[in-house]
# Entry
Amino acid sequence: MKIQIVNANDELIGVKKRSEIDFQNDTYRVSALWLTNSKGEALLAKRAAIKRNDPNKWGPAVAGTIDEGETYDENIYKEADEEIGLTGVEFTKIKKTRITYPRNYFCQWYSVTLDRDPNSFKLQDDEAAEVAWADVEQMKQELQATPEKYVPAMQQIIEELAI
# Structure
């Protein structure tokens, strides 16, 4: 499968195999889901140990690179199903951000609020090792104290989404 490569205006300029992407110079597309519950907690996922980028780090519960021929909208529903087994729920498109470190991509954010036991999610083994509800304020403090536990873009994600 090939990944969409875009310019500084998020306009498609080509596709590349995932293995050929230059993460510093190529800009690609990602869709991500900020999933919360009625207590205001966020569902975070610990990335699988076998992941090429950021293994064993905590980040948003669902995020995925846009494949050739896909839209942001199509991708987020596919990723939610594949990564945590979430289907039959409508997401709200909230904001598009530009992440520039340590990789370079546009991220279209979606949100949804639902109350579910973390053990009820069906995790894809090669994507997520576990998911857990996190108190957002506590997570922000932990992010300052031990940023290495989180994906490198987590601080920017929190700031961009004004969480």
User: Anything to note?
Assistant: The beta strands are 2-6, 12-17, 27-36, 42-47, 58-60, 62-65, 92-99, 105-113, 128-134. The CA atoms of residues 130 and 163 lie 22 Å apart. The first strand starts at residue 2 and ends at 6.
